[in-house]
Amino acid sequence: MATITRGEFLGMSAALVGAAGLGVRPGSTVNAAQAAGPGATADLALINGRVYTMDPAQPSAEAFAVRNGTIIAVGSTADIQNLISSRTEVINAGGTTVTPGFIDAHCHPATGGSRELVQVNLDLRSIGEIVVAVRDKAATMPSPEHWIDGFKYDDTKVIDGRRINRFDLDEAAPDNPVRVSHRGGHIAWYNSKALQMAGVTRETPDPQGGRFEHDSNGELTGLVEERANGAFNGVGVREETTRDDQRRGVELITELMTAAGLTSVHDASTSSDSARAYQDALQNGQLRCRITMLVRGALFEAAKAGGLYTGFGNEWVRIGPVKFGADGSASGRTMYMSTPYVGTDDHGILTMTAEEIHEAVEDAHRHDFQVGIHANGDKTIEYVLDAYERVLRMWPHPDRRHRLEHCSLVNPDLLRRIKASGSIPTPFWTYAHYHGNKWVEYGPEKMEWMFAHKSFLDYDIPVAGASDYVPGPFEPLMAIQSMVTRKDFEGRVWGPSQRVTVDEALRIGTVNGAYASYEEDVKGSIAVGKYADFVELRQDPHSVDPDAIKEIEVVRTVVGGRTMHPKGA
Known about the structure:
23 strands; 2 domains; globular
């Protein structure tokens, strides 16, 4: 893996362009006349729309004007007509709905994009189809030492009624090591060749924070959980992604994301390679949405050594929190909880000890980093809050906004602590809908406190929306439907007490997402001085059948006054 230097970080530094040409500072509150100035005209104007601004001072409008990528006026169509000239690009919305661009506060776009290019997509509906896909890939392998990597496998989406195992993978590719990653990202299945090459046998002990699954006879099933996956590091030959592959992956995934209405995303596990890919795509004019990087590993160490910290960068690519992972997965059913999964004595897996959490948080906090820790289960959240509360007592900060990545299972005591510490939760916003078949293993009681968007709002906590893509779909309209209805694909309701209104869902996906990265002054609403990041929708999510919100067409996505979807528009 490549590393990134301080000089390379400095290469992506730039002042925020905002509305520099107009002398308007992003987030300022000047009125439209002041912003425009005498005789000023707009580069872009949207008229005749149903605009939900998410600005409490002006909740709705018909039109707005943009200059130099920044909104200069918001009001009626008649008002905005005064700023239109022959050089102005005019979008006549014709009564369609317009919202601020959606913000996904936790996803994995760079790795997801490169995977789409070089790995085997196993979002399939039967084990037989998976076997065929892996076998087809095996036929292209240059040697028996080369790995076959599959991703997006989801055990609850196949018709077989069971999980895949190493014997299925042996049938598909007996001569090559095979790894099939669960969509949740924390567990994977390996074939016998892979186990043999890694020296993993039925007698191999589980490592701290990981597990090798055995069947009733003590035989390995091929399922490997959490840190136990480390046994396969450095084994065999991996299909490498080139620097150009990584750039093309960013180009592909940001094109798909803007087509869904996303204008900003937070990469929740940014490596040095991913950071370089974002810069390469930006330099080549192929980055279609704004990126906040949650740095980790070597990239975090390089940033820290170079004196960089949260907020460094420009309006397109910037450093956000440092990221750590403290427990397992909600969709993989390994998150660490105070009570066990239904019908078992299994409480999940803690991947960092309490001491490790404290050490990591202190180091990052004292180096001026916002911290984001993957914490799904209630016990894990408790440990993380212990660490956040401690550093804020010892080294106070007026507005640190440490984050709880996922923050899946809460309770009233945790909610009070989250509010008091100023922490920001980023729970899964598509999961109630998309992963419904998994929730039987948690049970209805837990589901009243999982992905607790309503409870967070009730406690005045600025909860942000997050897909965790690849584990969850990144489409924000599916997310709105999921939060509003709490219905899965089969119409079952999971945790009805956590339903929110459409307006609340929109706020979670816009204003609150901006707040999670200290960008509420420049994005998240359609207001004077903010970036011209917005989405045009064919229908109004307030008026369609709630069970059909995800079907609403994204007509147009604009970032910084430039149309990013449709491509080439």
